[in-house]
């Protein structure tokens, strides 16, 4: 058994404990509000992962949390509700589970074990080493947990709304599936490109990456807009739940992407031309024809 496999077993074991903690916290709380109970349970599980990340000295332990929590929590809430499984309920749960499985599998493929820490986390640590225990908690663990929980609220609303399959709901479902496939294709294109250019400071400018600088992020954002459209297909009204996919979009547009591109430009100044030619997020036709350049994203 190699080191990566051993580390994955440890991660899996710790996440099972986190789910058990979340379950007992949820059942222990006597509040009637399911959302509040679930949020507290979510934060309890996150707190356990945070503490273990400090013990293991690796904040990347949190990385799978983004993808494994949503389907587990949504399925749990549905079972707790005692509702009969309808086609719209099944479609929503299947779509989110499909997304979660794909994203988790992609993380497993790209993760090399506890000897590796995401460069973003290292950057946060290096800016204020003495405050890392706090920035780790707030920026790496708590903030993403709350963003994802906002999406969970949309899913819970779908599960607790009287279902009626509609064209709008089906469009939302298809958006989630298609967006997940976009993520898969773009990540595989990047993985293949990296293998072909090991040790080279080149950047991908092929496949979906010719139409979007971040097609994988576009897929991620679209997943959550698809979930919200499913909700619209049941309620036929715009409401404050739209803030969930909007918050996810703003996270990528104003935080994740600028941070990524700033890092790329430090080692590959030619990336500036690529920025001028190619849409940041939504796939679109290039502004002009130029010789291909390359982009590397991690």
Describe the structure.
- With about 300 residues, the protein is mostly helical.
- The chain has a domain at about 1-160.
- Helix content is about 70%, strand content about 0%.
- The chain has helices spanning about 5-30, 35-55, 65-80, 85-110, 120-125, 130-160, 165-195, 215-235, 245-265, 270-275.
- The chain is globular, with a radius of gyration of 20 Å.
Short description:
The protein has 298 residues and is mostly helical.
What pattern of helices and strands is seen along the backbone?
Answer: HHHHHHHHHH
Radius of gyration: 20 Å
* Mean pLDDT across residues: 93
Helix segment tally: 10
Can you tell me the residue ranges where pLDDT is under 50 for at least 5 consecutive residues?
291-295
Percent of residues in β-strands: under 5%
Structural class: mainly alpha
- Work out the number of β strands: 0
Shape: globular
Main sheet, how many strands, which sense, barrel? Answer: none
The oligomerization state is: single chain
Span from first to last CA?
27 Å
Helix content: over 70%
List the helices and strands and how they pair.
Elements: H1 3-28, H2 34-56, H3 65-81, H4 87-110, H5 119-127, H6 132-160, H7 167-196, H8 215-235, H9 243-267, H10 271-277
Helix pairs in contact: 1-2, 2-3, 2-6, 3-4, 3-6, 4-7, 5-6, 6-8, 6-9, 7-8, 8-9
Question: Which key features would you list for this structure?
Answer:
single chain; about 300 residues; mainly alpha; globular
């Amino acid at each position: 058994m190699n080191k990566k496999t051993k580390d994955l077993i440890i991660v899996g074991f710790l996440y099972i404990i986190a789910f058990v903690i979340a379950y007992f916290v949820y059942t222990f709380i006597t509040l009637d509000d399911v959302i509040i109970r679930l949020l507290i349970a979510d934060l309890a599980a996150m707190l356990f992962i945070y503490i273990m990340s400090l013990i293991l000295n690796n904040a990347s332990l949190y990385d799978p949390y983004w993808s494994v929590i949503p389907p587990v929590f949504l399925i749990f809430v549905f079972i707790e509700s005692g509702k009969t499984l309808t086609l719209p309920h099944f479609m929503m749960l299947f779509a989110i589970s499909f997304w979660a499985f794909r994203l988790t599998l992609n993380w497993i493929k790209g993760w090399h074990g506890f000897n590796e820490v995401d460069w973003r986390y290292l950057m946060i640590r290096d800016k204020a080493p003495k405050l890392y225990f706090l920035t780790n908690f707030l920026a790496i663990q708590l903030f993403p947990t709350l963003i994802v929980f906002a999406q969970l609220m949309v899913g819970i609303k779908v599960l607790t709304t009287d279902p009626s399959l509609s064209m709008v709901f089906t469009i939302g479902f298809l958006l989630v599936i298609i967006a997940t496939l976009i993520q898969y294709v773009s990540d595989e294109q990047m993985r293949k490109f990296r293998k072909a250019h090991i040790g080279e400071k080149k950047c991908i400018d092929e496949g979906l990456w010719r139409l979007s600088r971040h097609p994988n992020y576009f897929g991620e954002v679209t997943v959550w807009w698809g979930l919200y459209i499913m909700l619209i297909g049941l309620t036929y009204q715009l409401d404050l739940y739209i803030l969930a996919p909007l918050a996810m979009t703003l996270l990528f547009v104003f935080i994740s992407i600028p941070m990524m591109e700033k890092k790329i430009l430090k080692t590959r100044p030619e990336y500036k031309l690529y920025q001028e030619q190619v849409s940041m997020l939504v796939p679109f036709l290039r502004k002009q024809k130029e010789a291909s350049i390359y982009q590397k994203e991690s």
